[in-house]
Design brief:
Blueprint: E1 6-9, H1 13-25, E2 29-35, H2 42-46, E3 49-54, H3 65-75, E4 79-81, H4 91-99, E5 103-104, H5 109-115, H6 118-127, E6 135-136, H7 143-153, E7 157-161, E8 170-173, H8 179-194, E9 199-203, E10 209-217, E11 223-235, E12 238-244, H9 251-266, E13 272-280, E14 286-292, H10 299-306, H11 310-318, E15 335-342, E16 344-345, E17 351-352, E18 355-356, E19 359-361, E20 368-372, E21 379-380, E22 387-395, H12 398-411, E23 413-415, H13 421-429, H14 431-434, H15 442-446, H16 449-452, H17 459-480, E24 498-505, E25 508-518, E26 521-526, E27 529-539, E28 542-547, E29 550-560, E30 563-568, E31 571-576, E32 593-595, E33 600-605, E34 612-613, E35 618-624, E36 627-632, E37 637-642, E38 649-650, E39 655-661
Parallel strand pairs: 1-2, 1-4, 2-3, 4-5
Antiparallel strand pairs: 6-9, 7-8, 7-9, 10-11, 10-13, 11-12, 12-15, 13-14, 15-22, 16-17, 18-21, 19-23, 20-22, 24-25, 25-26, 26-27, 27-28, 28-29, 29-30, 30-31, 32-39, 33-35, 33-38, 34-37, 35-36, 37-39
Helix pairs in contact: 4-5, 12-13
């Protein structure tokens, strides 16, 4: 037995909050670590103790094993929980914890080593008779060997980083002529994200379901599974929606997949929580994809249908106790669905977004759980993964769970950086998803650039924004007044005042006129429509009003003078009063200025001054929130200047290079 009563959580954000909460509930002393960027983060505030481990970049803080172990020694931590991401699947870290006399709450270094490499793990699974997708996983990593194997496998084919996961270092190739570029790109991204450029190839299984089995092992050789999760709704091979159980699962298929997952775990003497991931095709055949030797982001859906606290179970088996339940005692009740709320711009190719969370109000309600580590007013940093929260709903059946989750998302408020909240609402609202028919092709088949475009503000949203700005201007005016007789407040003479606002709506100027017809009652002319607005109650970034006779509550934010964010019936828009600002120069959209579309690191500049480029050609590569983004030129012409150096950290809008466009 390895008893411990203190746990250091070597992670950040919502997972650190999640682990600390279970640790404290179980009576453990919980210790947090944090970077300079996370000094005011929620996990730091709720921990019993917290230690600063370095600056914002992960390699100087959360990926620095020595700093984490030093923090553990300084605080007397007896065990370390790695969370997920960062060092959670790092065999060297697991061994370093053991060498330092601290319990690593997870599998052994040997298990991590085998399953942390897709090539090695696939070879082991083939030996254990676990069904695998045909592919190439040999040590020879030359381009020639990979290309030759790809010709044998045939297209479509997946190029994958052997190390790591999360969709990074992964490319789909449908034409073998595209393979060399895909290999180079996947290898570069893998080296940047995981420190290893090793690749494997797999035949692409088109339109499969992504189904994973939660397994748990103890130090006495017992291994069980706790059912499955369907994680098919993905974009860029990263999960967006997860649910348990899988909508098409049958008892016989669950038994077969569960037994295969248990066999996989047993083959490496697995201890702790792990996930065996499979592809499930339309004929009911399943194939091993990979094993994650850690707790998964989507573990809450399993907890909600099994009633088990998986983190508490991790603590239990890490101390040497046998599993607290046998396979026949695992029962599934109801249905749970989880969505990942990302700080990203769905209308701009899902690019990561950063900035201050001016307003953050997570939902509450029957069957609703929110795992997050966000504090209102906190800056969402470009240094870390863009996921800010997980919103989970449970219901007696799938229909109830989906309705509850839709309502919860509509009630969620995150004002500041762009988020994928509306996209998630749209996903849950699709009939294909409602019917339980979504596969990994779901997003590509059901969404396009046009359907993902940010919706234009309707007349009512415009009217509310104009009233908010009008009232804010009144308050500023009253605050600046030297004196004001109470009886004269609001007096404007006999002539009705029409206050003029101008918004850019879908690229066109819309003029609005706000007239206060009585105290707190407004008549707004917006783009030819007339909207009646009655102000009832306003507090904490929420206003209760009567809109054309209908009473409702509207979340809002006024981040700066002349700017309003309004969320009406779940749909959010941001409007700027053009009369309060000089119009931004929009003439560069089709110019030769190539700017950074997000905060991030400039990995490569692919051209030099004097080079001729064609419209659509890649000219630079950036990395933001662990993903590579290729910048291309909208014009044909000559590169006249490069304004940023490789390795530079760029802010959104920073000029990378300049091209003189051909006339």
């Amino acid at each position: 037995m390895q008893h411990f009563d203190s746990i250091l959580v070597a992670n950040r954000g919502e997972i650190a909050v999640r682990v600390i909460r279970s640790a404290q509930q179980q009576g453990y002393r919980a210790i947090a670590v944090y970077s300079e960027a996370d000094a005011t983060a929620a996990h730091v505030q709720m921990a019993d103790e917290a230690v600063l481990i370095g600056p914002a970049p992960v390699r100087e803080s959360y990926l620095d094993m020595d700093r984490i172990l030093s923090a553990a020694r300084a605080t007397g931590a007896q065990a370390i929980h790695p969370g997920y991401g960062f060092l959670s699947e790092n065999a060297a870290f697991a061994q370093a914890c053991a060498d330092a006399g601290m319990v690593f709450i997870g599998p052994t270094a040997a298990s991590i080593e085998i399953m942390g490499n897709k090539a090695a793990s696939k070879r082991r699974m083939l030996e254990a008779d676990v069904p695998c997708v045909p592919g190439y996983q040999d040590p020879d990593q030359s381009d020639q060997a990979l290309i030759a194997a790809a010709h044998d496998i045939g297209v479509p084919i997946m190029v994958k980083a052997a190390a790591g996961g999360g969709g990074r270092g992964m490319r789909l190739v449908e034409d073998l002529d595209e393979l060399p570029v895909a290999i180079a790109s996947a290898r570069s991204e893998a080296e940047s994200a995981f420190g290893s450029g090793e690749l494997i190839l797999e035949r692409a299984v088109l339109r499969p379901r992504h189904v994973e089995i939660q397994v748990f092992g103890d130090q006495h050789g017992n291994v069980i599974h706790l059912g499955e999760r369907d994680c098919s709704v993905q974009r860029r091979h990263q999960k967006v929606v997860e649910e348990a159980p899988c909508p098409v699962m049958t008892p016989a298929l669950r038994d077969a997949m569960g037994q295969a997952a248990v066999n996989a775990a047993r083959s490496i003497d697995y201890v702790g929580a792990g996930t065996v991931e499979f592809l499930l095709d339309a004929e009911g055949q399943f194939y091993f994809l990979e094993m994650n030797t850690r707790l998964q982001v989507e573990h809450p859906v399993t907890e909600m249908v099994t009633g088990q606290d998986l983190v508490a179970m991790q603590f239990h088996v890490a101390q040497g106790y046998p599993l607290p339940l046998a396979q026949e005692e695992v029962t599934l009740a109801g249905h749970a669905i989880e969505v990942r709320l990302y700080a990203e711009d769905s209308s701009n190719d899902f690019l990561p977004a950063t900035g201050k969370a001016h307003v953050w109000s997570p939902p509450v309600g029957e069957g609703i759980r929110v795992d997050h580590g966000l504090v209102q007013g906190q800056d969402i940093s470009p240094f870390y993964d863009p996921m800010v929260a997980k919103i989970i709903a449970w219901g007696e059946d799938r229909h109830i769970a989906r309705r509850r989750l839709l309502r919860a998302l509509q009630a969620t408020t995150l004002f500041g950086p762009a988020s994928n909240r509306q996209f998630l609402i749209d996903v849950l609202g699709k009939q294909v998803f409602a019917n339980g028919e979504a596969t990994t092709a779901f997003i590509g088949e059901n969404f396009s650039a046009e359907t993902l475009a940010a919706p234009a503000a309707c007349a009512r949203q415009q009217a509310i924004a104009a009233c908010l700005m009008y009232r804010a201007a009144q308050e500023r005016s009253a605050g600046a007044a030297l004196s004001c007789l109470p009886d004269a407040r609001g007096f404007s003479g006999l002539r009705a005042l029409r206050n003029h606002f101008r918004f850019d709506v879908a690229g066109s100027d819309v003029d609005l006129f706000v007239e206060e017809v009585a105290a707190d009652d407004y008549r707004v002319e917006a783009g030819g429509e007339q909207v009646e607005v009655a102000w009832l109650k306003q507090e904490d970034n929420r206003v209760r009003l009567r809109l054309d006779g209908v009473e409702l509550t509207v979340p809002y934010c006024l981040p700066e003078t002349g700017v309003a964010i309004v969320q009406l019936r779940g749909r959010e828009v941001q409007l700027t009063n053009q009369l309060a600002f000089s119009r931004a120069d929009e003439s560069t959209g089709g110019s030769g200025l190539i700017t950074a579309p997000m905060h991030g690191n400039l990995l490569q500049v692919l051209v030099s001054p004097g080079d001729r480029v064609e419209a659509g050609q890649d000219v630079a590569v950036m990395e933001a929130m662990k993903m590579e983004h290729r910048l291309n030129t909208p014009v044909t012409g000559e590169v006249v200047a490069v304004h940023a150096n490789t390795g530079a950290q760029l802010a959104t809008g920073a000029v990378v290079l300049e091209i003189s466009a051909e006339q």
